[in-house]
Amino acid sequence: MSTDAPVTIELSGGTAHLTLNRPDKRNALDGATIDALSAALERCAKDPAVRLLQLTGAGNVFCAGADLGEMQAQAQASEAQNLAHAKKLASLLGVLDGWPKPTLARVNGDGFGGALGLIAACDIVVVAEGAKFAFTEVRLGIIPAVVSPFVLAKISESAALRYFLTAETMSAAALKDVGLAHEVVSADALDAACHRISEAILKGAPGALIAAKALIRDVAHRSAADRAEASIQMAARLARLRVQEEAQEGFSAFFAKRKANWRRD
After folding, report:
1. Predicted confidence (pLDDT) per residue in 215-238, tens digit
2. Do 14 and 102 meet the contact criterion of CB atoms below 8 Å apart?
3. Residue ranges per domain, the chain?
């Protein structure tokens, strides 16, 4: 795949390394990137040579969440247009969450908004120390609707109440504490940690690994299909909010680099 593609794929030893490849845009999730990642997941799912998928970001940021240019455009879009836009991310997260083979997130840096959906939808997550994370949506007058079914499958209601409502920045250690990461390592040790986990996974029989994932999803609280459908439904909730006065003010303040009119500080 071309190195200027929004998502690159490299196959090595049974592992498909998928990289969000917009480092100049902090690997933000624009429509082209969402489409490319969706296509890559479909391609790798069908490839018998792929036994494991590893997702990471180019540069020193994992994913900044929504693309700023598209955020500005959506602030002026209709509810129907906002719904179509939100459904694209919901569909991607549903595919990643329900992907049949093991998935590993190599979180090499900061992750916000939709990035936390990608992290939550992966099976195993290794995070570099120093990375920062946040559900910042309420500060824009919206909510983390699309990612919520996947995030709430991993973290407690109590943790969601704190971080969805406060939009506080979480450290890598806090991300692990709430259940969205399995290991936190130094940036220098990130590749070694991911290699160690990958090697452990690849010792398992391919069919058994697929069956083990299916077992977990069938026995756990909600199936992958339930989460995917819930995310689509939450996309409609987000679309309704995006066209309201409060969200319009939130986005206007964000892009004007001023405080929203509800801020007291």
Report:
1. 888 777 656 667 778 777 877 877
2. no
3. 7-187+224-256
- Give the CATH number of domain 7-187+224-256; options: 1.10.3210.10, 3.40.980.10, 3.90.226.10, 3.40.50.720: 3.90.226.10
CB 168 within 8 A of CB 132: no
β-sheet with 61-63: strand ranges across: 61-63, 110-112, 132-134, 170-171
In sequence order, what are the beta bridge partners of 15?
12, 52
Point out the residues of the chain with pLDDT beneath 50: 1-2
Predicted TM-score (pTM) of this structure: 0.87
Say if residue 245 is exposed, middle or buried (CB neighbours under 10 Å; 0-12, 13-18, 19+). exposed
Q: How far apart are CA 45 and CA 37, in angstroms?
A: 12
Neighbours of 240 (CB within 10 A): 15
